Amino acid sequence: MPDSSLSLWQRATAAIGGAVASAIVVNPLEVVKTRAQLNGTSSIRLVARNEGVRALWRGTSIQILNSLPTVGVYLMTYDFTLKRLSEDRVVPASLMPLFSGISARTVAVCLSSPIENVKTMMYSGSNKAPLTIVREEISRGGFKRLFRGFLPYFWRDVPFSAIYWMTLEHTRSYIMEQLIQDRAVVSNNDMAEKWKTTQNSSTNLSLSSRDLLLTNVASGLTAGMVAAFLTTPVDTIYVNKISNSTVVSSKLARQRSFTAMELGGNIVRKHGILGLFRGVAPRVFKVAPSCAIVIASYEMFKRLIWTSTSNSNDDGVRRVMVEEQTSETLEDVKNSVMLELCGDCDRQDECCCC
């Protein structure tokens, strides 16, 4: 069965399964990263000592909810876009992952911006329930306030996605060239064919489950580290904008709302250029394993679903074949018996035995 036979809901299940696992495992690093970008320093031990261990998982519920658009829709849109580009070839093959990543993340950002804002406020230290934050935000500036910080969020996540998928697909393709037994397919110089091969890796049984897992973990870690580091400055600006940080004086903050560019300039003037990279270590250490967990879980869930569905279909095919063979055997036996009884009969066509 080809990978394309996986239904929309099967792909969604695989994607969300990876997102839930990632949200639970790496949530403490997200909390530490956000605090470091706001306050200049933070650590898991510091947060646990001052606020309790439970504070490290503050916002986990909203993070899991956020995984529906940011991971579920995102991964499915990426798969669909890359598949169409590989077939239509309207852009250079080497850039197909870049365009697919941009398209998929644009959709995800538009759907998830309000949830991302609520999540960021919870990570920054708010003890309020998500619905309370939503109501307060709407009362302060209407529904549009829920999309506050959309541009820095967009310019953080969309370039991240472009860098991530370009790095991941090239890394994954290289590793699979060394592992998949059918070298003629993977070593094809046609890049579009390579992307099809990596997309179908979850159903390629010449690649063991162990190799599939390790390939995606290694590729996800590498791509996540590169993309997280390069997009940290925009992430710092976004976090400060959403969390009403004190990078500008409270008097100025009351006078007007600062744009992303102005916030970036204020951070540089106050902390230097390195101020834009505050929290880079926890961001990289949070994002890289998160990317690895999501992509590896997604591909492993796809293989699990494909294998179980394939086995089910194979059982059905075998049952049909057995029934057909049994029917043919019974027919042969009947014909043999009639031949024995009526072989010398002059009225075979009218014989009751026949």
Short description:
The protein is mainly α. It is 75% helix and 0% strand.
Essential attributes:
354 residues; mainly alpha; Mitochondrial carrier fold; 13 helices; globular
Describe the model:
Helix 4 packs across helix 6 and helix 6 (150-179) packs antiparallel against helix 9. Mean pLDDT is 78; it is low at 245-255. The protein is globular, with a radius of gyration of 29 Å. It has a single domain (3-321), classed as Alpha/alpha barrel (Mitochondrial carrier fold), CATH 1.50.40.10. It has 354 residues and is mainly α. It has helices spanning 8-39, 44-51, 60-88, 96-123, 130-141, 150-179, 183-186, 191-199, 209-230, 232-242, 250-255, 260-271, 280-342. The chain starts with 7 loop residues before the first helix and ends in a 12-residue tail after the last helix.
